[in-house]
């Protein structure tokens, strides 16, 4: 390693005490004398380099410069009467002045509030004082995230950012700094997290249409983020579709990370067609995101998912063949025995999968992947030690990356930060405490081993895909539950979330595409008279997201066939 230059020591405020303190934290002492002078000069030089970069103007990548719009970008907050689900964070009305296609023309889209929208603040679900130095006005984003640019250039209108969970660190929907986000089907109940607002607004369009209940302005497609299930879990609780695509298929550039090896962006929608459409618009290499790999398609190589889905639905079948002929569906045994899974969800997912896939001509089998039970443990061990560095401290991932420049997270934490987060989302305090504790107890070698175990877990799933085409698991383990009492204890707040992502988190570390599909309704323990959605998770081979979409289409066809066979009432 070379030294850039040697600083003028007379201009530095770094002293021997600073050097000795740094050495003490590392567990050794530097003897006074020439060694002290040498290392002090080197520290002063490193400090001078950082101050130079700190004082320079920032750089905005030309591909992230906000898209020119039909009118100046403005934003506002909805009155509570216009935001009954507390799903909107900031409202806007943004349309590209010169879109390059009409794929999303006329479509209204909402964006999770950890994704940068030029000219708007990004709150990541937390308190403004934790994101800006003056504890006042949030800085506005100088960039459009890659997916935001692509959506605008496809002709869509972005209607606003959606509330998400505090630091995106909850699978439920009570922790946002602006208050809980409500399930569109039953107020006071979780919509799932962390893409809580996105899911609620999409589900609200169904509830308004089918039940005639006014929930103010809604959307039928939205963007979420998924690190452990944060697209799929809200989709399951809300009765809509939610896709976590193959890792590296959609660029994460311009979104606030939770952990680089887990970060995914994905669509939520009321229909498979809209999932396919949004996937096509967002997917493809952007030349910036280090999460993308040589396997990631270039933009012109992205599959035409809407056309392929339409062709699959309308293809002419040979005599005696059905939509699911030749498709083998594997019910993942261990996923139906996870702790906290309700009997109602387990039975509904298993029964509907067997009945509807079989009705459409698919073969349904049971399959065991013993390592699946360790998936959420591997997820935790592979990321927990360093997670607060990404989400709380704004650390880069070690590879050339472009983090949102307007996010200036407060660090180190103080008593005020602790109290705010303990009251709203103690999970993030746990993340912050876990980092230094685990580092001291185990060191980075265990995190590195857990990363290797993630490869082993991926191989276990890949082996199963030699026997089946699609894996089926329950998604969320129960129907939506009531929000916890925010005056309750730390453990009371966290207990409801324990085990919620057991069946979803493993596929974040392995990178397989996974889709939550509405498969039925169940009853809440405290409101048995209200039927709440149940979601089934379909998992496919990596880089074969299309097979997951077509499997969901087969499931829909089987459901139609089964219902048409019922006697008329």
UniProtKB/TrEMBL annotation:
> Which domain of life does the protein's organism represent?
Eukaryota
Q: Where is the Amidase domain?
A: 101-549
Picking any one GO molecular function of the record gives: catalytic activity
Query: InterPro entries given for it?
Result: Amidase (IPR000120), Amidase_dom (IPR023631), AS_sf (IPR036928)
Q: Which SUPFAM superfamilies match?
A: Amidase signature (AS) enzymes
Q: What is this protein called?
A: Amidase domain-containing protein
């Amino acid at each position: 390693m070379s030294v850039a230059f040697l600083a003028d020591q007379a201009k530095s405020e770094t002293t021997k005490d600073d050097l000795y303190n740094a050495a003490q934290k590392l567990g050794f002492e530097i003897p006074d004398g020439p060694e002290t002078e040498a290392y002090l000069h080197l520290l002063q030089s490193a400090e001078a380099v950082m101050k130079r970069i700190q004082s320079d103007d920032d750089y905005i990548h030309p591909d992230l410069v906000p898209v020119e719009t039909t009118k100046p970008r403005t934003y506002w907050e909805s009155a509570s009467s216009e935001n009954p689900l507390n799903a909107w964070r900031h409202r806007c009305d943004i349309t590209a002045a010169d879109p390059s296609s009409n794929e999303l023309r006329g479509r209204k889209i909402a964006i999770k509030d950890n994704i940068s929208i030029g000219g708007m603040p990004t709150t990541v679900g937390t308190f403004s004082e934790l994101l800006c130095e003056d504890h006042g006005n949030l800085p506005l984003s100088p960039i459009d995230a890659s997916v935001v640019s692509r959506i605008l250039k496809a002709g869509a209108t972005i209607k606003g950012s959606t509330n998400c969970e505090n630091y995106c660190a909850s699978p439920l929907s009570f922790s946002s700094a602006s208050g809980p986000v409500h399930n569109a089907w039953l107020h006071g109940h979780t919509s799932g997290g962390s893409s809580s607002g996105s899911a609620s607004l999409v589900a609200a369009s169904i509830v308004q249409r089918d039940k005639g209940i006014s929930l103010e302005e809604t959307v039928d497609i939205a963007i979420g983020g998924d690190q452990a299930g944060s697209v799929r879990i809200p989709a399951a609780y809300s009765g809509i579709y939610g896709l976590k695509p193959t890792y590296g298929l959609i660029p994460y550039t311009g979104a606030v990370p939770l952990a680089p090896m887990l970060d995914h962006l994905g669509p939520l929608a009321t229909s498979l067609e809209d999932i396919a459409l949004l996937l096509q618009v967002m997917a493809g290499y952007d030349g910036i995101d280090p999460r993308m790999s040589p396997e990631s398609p270039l933009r012109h190589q992205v599959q035409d998912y809407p056309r392929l889905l339409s062709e699959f639905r309308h293809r002419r079948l040979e005599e005696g063949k059905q939509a699911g002929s030749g498709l083998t569906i594997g019910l993942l045994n261990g996923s139906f025995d996870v702790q906290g899974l309700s009997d109602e969800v387990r039975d509904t997912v298993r029964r509907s999968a067997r009945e509807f896939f079989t009705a459409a001509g698919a073969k349904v089998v049971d399959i065991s992947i013993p390592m699946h039970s360790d998936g959420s443990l591997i997820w935790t061990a592979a990321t927990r030690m360093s997670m607060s560095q990404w989400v709380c401290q704004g650390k880069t991932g070690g590879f050339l990356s472009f983090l949102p420049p307007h996010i200036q997270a407060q660090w180190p934490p103080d008593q005020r930060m602790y109290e705010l987060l303990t009251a709203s989302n103690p999970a993030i305090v746990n993340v912050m405490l876990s980092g230094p504790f685990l580092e001291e107890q185990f060191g980075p070698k265990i995190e590195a081993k857990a990363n290797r175990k993630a490869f082993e877990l991926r191989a276990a799933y890949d082996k199963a895909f030699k026997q089946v085409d699609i894996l089926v698991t329950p998604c969320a383990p129960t129907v939506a539950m009531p929000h916890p009492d925010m005056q309750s204890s730390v453990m009371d707040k966290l207990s409801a979330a324990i085990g919620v992502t057991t069946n979803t988190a493993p596929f974040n570390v392995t990178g397989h595409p996974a889709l939550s599909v509405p498969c039925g309704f169940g009853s809440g323990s405290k409101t048995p008279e209200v039927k709440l959605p149940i979601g089934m998770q379909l998992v496919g081979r990596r880089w074969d997201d299309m097979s997951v979409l077509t499997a969901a289409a087969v499931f829909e066809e089987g459901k139609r066939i089964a219902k048409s066979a019922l006697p008329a009432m």
